[in-house]
Each structure stands twice: as C-alpha cells, then as structure tokens.
Design a protein that fits this description.
Length: 310
C-alpha cells in the first residue's frame, strides 16, 4: 500500500505517524514514572537488564568479535591521569586576635593576641623583605598544579573571626597591599568580640579571603557523621549565601581532625584544610593537613623573622 503513495503523501503519512506516536510515547513515559517512583523494588530490579545490556555490546552479532578489541584502547586513554605529587614551601602564619589586650587577659588570651604595634611591625618586615601574600586558595591550587606562586610567598591566616581582625589587621593589610585568609565560625558571627556579617562582607569586598572554621568551633574528630556533615556543609552554605562567593577551605577548630573529618570535607566539596601542626612545607597528598606557623603574642620581631626561615 505504501508504494502506491506519492512522495508528498508519504511525508504526510509519516507526519501523522509522528503526531500519534509522540503523544503515545509521552503517555507511556508518564504512565511508567509512577511505577518507577516506587523506589526500592524498581531500583533492585533495574540493574540486571542494564548489566546484560552493557555486557552484550553491539546491536549486530557479527560486529561482536571486532568491538571487544576496539574498546580496551579507548578506555585506556580515558583513564584518569595519575595525580602529580607536589611539595611547596610556603609559610602559613596563624594569628587569632590582633588588638589591645583586655585588662583581665589570662595567659591563653595573651598568647593568642598580637598587639597592633607588633602586627604593624611584622607586616612592615614582610614588605621590606619582599614577601608577597596570597590567598590560601592559591596555595591549594598550586599544590594541584593549577596556579603559580609568587617568588617569596607567605599566607596570613586568622582563626575564629574576632572583631579586632576588622579593626586592626584588615586596615593594616590593606595599607600594605596585602591579603589575609580569615576563618570564620559562622555560629559566632555577631556575638560579642566576634565579627558581624557587615564587617565580614566589607573585608571580603576589600580583598580579604573568608573561609570556614565550622559552625560551632567543636572538636570535629569526636562528632557523629551527621553532626560532622552539618558543621562542614552548613558553615559553607551560610558563608556563601552572605558573601556570594565560593568557600572551599577549612580550618579545623582547635586543630582536631581525623580521616572521617577529611572525608566529610571532601564530600562537602572542600579543596584544602589547615591544621595547627607546625611546618611550612606542604604536599599534594596532605592538602587537607596543611601545616602552619603560630605567631604568638610574645613574639619579638627577631623571633617572628626566624619563624619564616626554612
Ligand atoms: Zn579556632
């Protein structure tokens, strides 16, 4: 019957077939989805046909002897490249408070507080010696071969998100044309002594890098998987929504971490993390265990200078 139709009639016939077939397919699809929507059984049943489908590769049986020999080289070239292990020496300085000491400061507070005059001296020293600051993200990228380092690199990090960071460290860094990485505890933002979101935004807009120090400053190595996930994902989401920029770096509260903490960070999309372990040499394998150099309140300028030397 079809051969009797003219070319135009054939086209019209196919158009009719298409008009009928497409809605039918849509009906079939929508009709199928509720059954597929019953998840456990459908999921359990689905894999075997898929597996057999991939096991018998070609639609034409005669092609089968040829295809297997063709496949291995293709998959071999698609294999992921072996990651290159890099080792870079960059001092990552660790600060907490930068500001005047409160009258009732205890020994811990004194240790964690660098006086504004001392901090100014340290920034001047770095500039005089030709050090160039860079965001910590640049070091993480360099460890993956995706960024270059300046000739004399240094990273300045500030933990906890104290308000004095905005009052003292931020303007001094800006004057020197320097940047710093500020690890904020999102659950403490706006509390007494801590930065406000307005200040954090101003710092980010002023060239500072803002990253996560968790939600509640708890010992991450003792948390359940669920609590861990909350600390890493919520702090990141809150920071990103307030700043409108990506957050991919983490500082372990009190330096506590474990393989489970690292796994949670990786799963949440983080790219690197800093510890409180001492050192200035970093490797690609240990990008989630970057070492730092603690700057103490009692450090004189010569003591500070010696901490930068290999
Ligand atoms: Zn901390």
């Amino acid at each position: 019957m079809i051969p009797l139709l003219s070319g135009g009639e054939q086209r019209r016939l196919w158009a009719v077939v298409a008009l009928v077939a497409v809605p039918l397919l849509l009906v079939v699809n929508t009709a199928e989805s509720p059954t597929l929507g019953r998840p456990p059984r459908a999921a359990a049943v689905a894999p075997p046909p898929a597996a057999t489908a991939t096991a018998t590769p070609s639609p034409t049986p005669t092609a089968a002897p040829v295809t297997p020999t063709a496949i291995p080289p293709a998959t071999a070239t698609l294999a992921p490249p072996v990651p290159v292990e890099r080792s870079l020496r960059v001092p990552i300085l660790m600060y907490h408070h930068v500001g005047p000491l409160p009258a009732d400061a205890d020994a811990l507070r004194r240790d964690l507080t660098v006086a504004p005059e001392r901090f100014a001296e340290q920034v001047d020293y770095l500039a005089r010696e030709g050090y160039q600051t860079m965001p910590l993200a640049q070091l993480a990228a360099a460890l993956h071969g995706e960024a270059h380092l300046p000739p004399k690199p240094v990273v300045l990090t500030f933990d906890d998100g104290y308000r004095d960071n905005y009052d003292y460290a931020f303007p001094m860094l800006q004057r020197a044309g320097y940047t710093g990485t500020f690890f904020v505890v999102t659950g403490l933002v706006g509390h007494a002594e801590y930065l406000t979101w307005e200040q954090i935004r101003a710092m980010a807009d002023g060239g500072m890098e803002v990253q996560s120090h968790g939600r509640d400053h708890v010992d991450m190595s003792r948390l359940s998987a669920q609590a861990l996930e909350r600390q890493v994902t919520e702090s990141r989401r809150v920071l990103e929504s307030h700043l409108g920029r990506g957050v991919r770096l983490f500082a372990y509260p009190a330096g506590r971490y474990s393989p489970e903490v690292i796994a949670a960070l990786r799963a949440a999309g983080y790219q690197a993390a800093v510890t409180t372990r001492h050192g200035s040499t970093h490797t690609t394998a240990e990008v989630f265990a970057l070492r730092r150099v603690r700057v103490r309140g009692s450090d004189t300028l010569p003591a500070f200078a010696s901490k930068l030397r290999p």
